[in-house]
Design goal:
single chain; alpha/beta; five-stranded parallel sheet; three-stranded antiparallel sheet; 9 helices; 8 strands; globular; binds adenosine-5'-diphosphate; binds zinc ion
Length: 216
């Protein structure tokens, strides 16, 4: 069993890789971004609370995301390990995760930093969309569906959606939040001897091979 964090700026490809590694190797993907978007979609109290913050690209409070992750870690049994994607994003979240894993007698194995130039991130993020039925991720230049309007994976028709926060304004705020609050985690995990680096610029398969060589 391996527990892995994918660390990197918005658009680095964390979600794409986390999803595919989970499908192939049985990891449980824990994405706080997905969980929060789910809460928004369900119009739950939590969803309403975080909706504006997310649209602007700011971070929601540590308390909220730590609580979400805690529930998942405690309620998941028998898995091949977790892949954390979009969590932790602050030093307080990183500390909390260490404690949570400790409590269930698990350890963190690797933190994989996916690095990509900022100008590439803008291009990636402003072109991405996903299938609202199965969650498959697409991009209008680099990963278009084989048949227009039809999801390659589940066959849904005209079910594609864009994320509300995938616009240039919100992206600026998200990048700032990344450099201010999240990038210190690179040093934190380096000190804990958990840090590995992967160039996030290659093709989806190349990046996946690089990650697989580290974790499997
Ligand atoms: P991306 O990595 O593309 O910015 P995510 O899907 O990980 O997107 O997150 C979307 C938004 O959800 C963030 O901009 C933030 O508002 C909120 N969010 C997700 N995870 C966290 C977290 N761990 N801590 C604080 N806010 C978070
Ligand atoms: Zn689909």
């Amino acid at each position: 069993m391996k527990n892995i964090i994918l660390l990197g700026p918005p658009g680095a490809g964390k979600g794409t890789q986390a999803r595919s590694l989970s499908d192939k190797y049985g990891f449980v993907q824990l994405s706080t971004g997905d969980m929060l978007r789910e809460a928004k979609k369900d119009k739950s109290k939590l969803g309403l609370k975080v909706s504006n913050i997310m649209a602007k690209g700011e971070l929601v409070t540590d308390e909220i995301v730590i609580d979400l992750i805690k529930k998942k870690i405690i309620n998941t049994t028998n898995n091949k390990g977790f892949i954390f994607d979009g969590f932790p994003r602050t030093l307080a979240q990183a500390d909390a995760l260490g404690n949570l894993l400790n409590k269930v007698n698990q350890v963190l194995d690797y933190v994989i930093e996916m690095y990509v130039d900022d100008d590439k991130l803008v291009q990636r993020i402003t072109g991405r969309f996903s299938c609202s039925s199965c969650g498959e991720l697409y991009h209008k230049i680099t990963k278009i569906p084989k048949k227009t309007g039809i999801c390659d994976v589940c066959g849904s028709i005209d079910k594609f959606k864009f994320r509300q926060d995938d616009n240039e304004d919100s992206l600026k705020t998200r990048l700032l939040a990344y450099y201010r609050d999240t990038s210190p985690l690179i040093g934190y995990y380096y000190a804990l001897k958990k840090l590995k680096k992967v160039n996030g610029l290659g093709s989806i398969n190349e990046i996946q091979d690089a990650i697989r060589n580290i974790i499997i």
